[in-house]
Design a protein that fits this description.
Blueprint lengths: L8 E3 L15 H10 L2 H13 L9 E5 L4 H12 L4 E5 L7 H16 L7 E4 L11 H10 E6 L16 H18 L3 E5 L10 E3 L13 H14 L6 E7 L1 E3 L13 H14 L8 H6 L7 E2 L1 E3 H13 L7 E4 L5 E2 L3
Parallel strand pairs: 2-3, 2-5, 3-4, 5-6, 6-8, 8-12, 9-11
Antiparallel strand pairs: 1-7, 10-13
Helix pairs in contact: 3-10, 6-7
């Protein structure tokens, strides 16, 4: 497995877990400014700009999972904007079937973009179920039309002593079901969204080639993602494995918009609740941060969702960039007190 770039991320215990974000337009803007000045980002963009050509190698559809999440919704938009033949595996919710959920996402994007988007093929299933919950006809369609898969589905649950529950069920069980699906349908090009926090509690320089070296983990999410990435890398039937390791994904770099409130944003929501419901003065400044378990001097590695999606889309479209590991991180971490 090739590894992209020699510049590495520095994993500091103080920047491991998402805790707090300043108001949109401050922290998000600081992230964007830091990324613009990042030598790592410059190297990525230079490589993509200089080497980018839409290859004719892939003529089939790309199967996308996790399209209804924050990053997934941006990937859905960007891949369709770049005319990528796309199929989407999505679950039925209590209120809508899979096709209706994807259609709602697309109409929201069309309203924001002021233009119409192509429609993907929507397959209703559940990657936590055997065979990903797909019927025989849908599996036959995949075998005939899909030649690559982008696994973006993930559970962001941080703790669960029961490995039959989340995040294990989705992050490990779901990934294993997808690997079995690709083997049975002939899909040999696998793109996998992992996390830079597969480093666990290690400190120091973490390279793209590093994964499991008996490091301790801070929570079940980190460990489940490390085990899932290991399973993908060890899948013998795949011809190409491309791994994306983003750090803490935050809202849009222009607006701060986010569609979900998990992980880091759950802590942000708690902070907002404290500020609005606790008497003024009792939770201001450093006191509030300490109440949330962080210090104003802590650094967090934030990356805007639109930037992550744009870089991934470029990589996906150019097969010469496949088969590598990408650290989608900022070289200028954001101070929590910003």
């Amino acid at each position: 497995m090739k590894d992209e770039f020699q510049n590495a991320i520095v994993a500091k215990s103080s920047s491991r877990t998402p805790r707090k974000k300043a108001k949109p337009g401050t922290a998000v803007q600081a992230v964007a400014n830091g990324l613009r000045g990042s030598t790592g980002l410059a190297a990525i963009l230079s490589l993509l700009a200089n080497g980018y050509q839409r290859a004719l190698t892939h003529t089939g559809h790309l199967l996308l999972t996790g399209a209804t999440g924050l990053l997934g919704s941006y990937l859905l938009r960007d891949l369709l904007l770049n005319d990528t033949p796309l199929a989407v595996l999505a679950r039925r919710s209590r209120r809508a079937n899979a096709a209706e959920r994807i259609e709602l996402l697309l109409t929201d994007w069309e309203r924001a973009l002021g233009r119409r988007l192509p429609r993907p093929v929507v397959l209703e299933g559940d990657l936590t179920q055997p065979g990903c919950g797909l019927n025989r006809d849908d599996r036959a369609w995949l075998q005939s039309h899909c030649d690559r898969l982008l696994n973006n589905a993930a559970s962001l649950s941080f703790f669960n002593a029961d490995r039959e529950g989340e995040p294990w069920r989705t992050n490990i069980g779901g990934t294993q079901n997808l690997l079995e699906l690709t083997e049975s349908t002939g899909i040999r090009d696998f793109h996998h969204v992992s996390t830079s926090y597969v480093c666990g509690l290690r400190t120091g320089v973490i390279f793209e080639s590093d994964l499991v070296v008996d490091q301790p983990f801070g929570n079940d999410y980190e460990q489940s993602k490390a085990e899932a990435e290991t399973a993908v890398r060890h899948a013998g039937h795949l011809d190409s494995v491309t791994v994306y390791r983003p750090s803490i994904i935050v809202g849009d770099s222009h607006s701060g918009y986010t569609s979900t409130y998990h992980g880091f944003f759950a802590v942000l929501r708690l902070g907002h609740t404290l500020l609005t419901r606790v008497p003024i003065g009792s939770t201001s400044g450093p006191a509030l941060l300490r109440l949330l378990g962080i210090e104003a001097t802590d650094c967090k590695n934030f990356v805007p969702v639109d930037w992550v999606s744009a870089v991934m889309t470029r990589i996906i479209q150019d097969p010469s960039l496949h088969g590598r590991t990408y650290h989608l991180t900022s070289n200028a971490p954001t101070t929590v007190g910003t």
